[in-house]
């Protein structure tokens, strides 16, 4: 193995030109760590936010983006057990201290020292990464590297939103915005596993068709009167739960789409972080607004079983070569992607 690796680094904050190919030293795995030869890395909107300086603006540069990683075990540090070189693996993007009360109670994504690969520490825009053993899982059988890289962050996010934050019930109706996005394609499938009725919002016929294929019961065009369309499909009641990661542009529409006593679960704000919330809507209709970030390490093991059993499938929209990282960012920002955008790593 050589001592250096190919990487695409964030060299400054700004547009896609801030991503530049460079060579970096390969880090040796320390005690309890695994060195993974990366074969595929999937993109998330988090990559765009970090690149622009919206998220973690004080990170030292150069920085490696990329939260969703699949590859092979290349080497192991002292004390690592249960793996062998060449094992195909996918990585949990959330790294925590492992010894605080929250970590030990299974809520590691609430750890005060929680870090996400590609945001707070170097991620997968490279050929190798050293990662704690607790973040390494065997790839689900039947998936290739591209599909496996499409699973972790978006599926973890969707899992916690559905099962932990919303605590969704089979008799409930949900509204899912941006239905063809990485998180939402998982939300649709998980909500249908629960048995809930799913109304999906999408901007194009192709995205609406994808939502229906994944199990959505109804689709709404993003330019329709969302609240009225939802009420028409729920006998005037509104949705029990709205899952929204689009942010400011749709915030009030999401609140209006809820029934009395409904819950809005948000995990992001792709259109902007500053939204106006009429508080009288919240207290008079007794609405709940619930934030959500990632999921626990244990959740990814449950997701792994869902994927293994064919109950949850990754949706890959675009596969590009590693050198096309800039083009991949352009696809995300233009909202052209159906599902995940993935880079193959040479």
Automatic annotation (TrEMBL):
This is Alcohol dehydrogenase. InterPro entries: ADH-like_C (IPR013149), ADH-like_N (IPR013154), ER (IPR020843), GroES-like_sf (IPR011032), NAD(P)-bd_dom_sf (IPR036291), Zinc-ADH_QOR/CCCR (IPR051603). The keyword NADP applies. Coiled coil: none annotated. GO terms for molecular function: oxidoreductase activity. It comes from the Bacteria. Pfam families: ADH_N (PF08240), ADH_zinc_N (PF00107). It comes from Deinococcus cellulosilyticus (strain DSM 18568 / NBRC 106333 / KACC 11606 / 5516J-15). Residues 14-343 form the Enoyl reductase (ER) domain. The keyword Ribonucleoprotein does not apply. Keywords: NADP.
């Amino acid at each position: 193995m050589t001592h250096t690796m190919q990487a695409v680094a964030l060299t400054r904050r700004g547009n896609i030109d801030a991503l530049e190919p460079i060579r970096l030293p390969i880090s040796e795995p320390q005690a309890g760590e695994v060195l993974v030869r990366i074969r595929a890395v999937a993109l998330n909107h988090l990559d765009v936010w970090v690149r622009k300086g919206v998220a973690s603006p004080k990170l030292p540069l150069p920085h490696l983006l990329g939260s969703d990683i699949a590859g092979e075990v290349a080497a192991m540090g002292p004390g690592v057990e249960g793996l062998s070189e060449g094992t195909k693996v996918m990585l949990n993007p959330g790294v925590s201290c492992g010894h605080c009360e929250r970590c030990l109670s299974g809520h590691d994504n609430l750890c005060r020292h929680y870090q996400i690969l590609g945001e707070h520490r170097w991620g997968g825009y490279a050929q190798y990464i050293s990662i704690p053993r607790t973040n390494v899982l065997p790839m689900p059988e039947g998936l290739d590297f591209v599909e496996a890289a499409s699973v972790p962050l978006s599926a973890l996010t969707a899992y916690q939103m559905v099962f932990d934050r919303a605590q969704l019930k089979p008799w409930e109706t949900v509204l899912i915005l941006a239905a063809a996005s990485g998180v939402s394609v998982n939300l649709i499938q998980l909500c249908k596993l629960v048995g809930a009725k799913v109304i999906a919002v999408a901007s194009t016929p192709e995205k609406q068709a994808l939502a229906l294929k994944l199990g959505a019961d109804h689709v709404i065009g993003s330019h329709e009167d969302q609240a009225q369309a939802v009420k028409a499909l729920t006998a005037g009641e509104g949705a029990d739960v709205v899952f929204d990661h689009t942010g400011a542009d749709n915030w009030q529409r999401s609140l209006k789409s809820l029934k009395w006593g409904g819950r809005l679960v948000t995990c992001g704000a792709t259109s902007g972080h500053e939204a106006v919330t009429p508080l009288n809507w919240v207290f008079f209709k007794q609405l709940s607004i619930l934030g959500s970030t990632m999921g626990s390490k244990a959740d990814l093991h449950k997701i792994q079983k869902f994927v293994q059993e064919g109950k949850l499938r990754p949706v890959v929209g675009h596969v590009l070569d590693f050198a096309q990282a800039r083009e991949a960012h352009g696809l995300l920002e233009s909202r052209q992607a159906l599902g995940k955008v993935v880079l193959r790593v040479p």
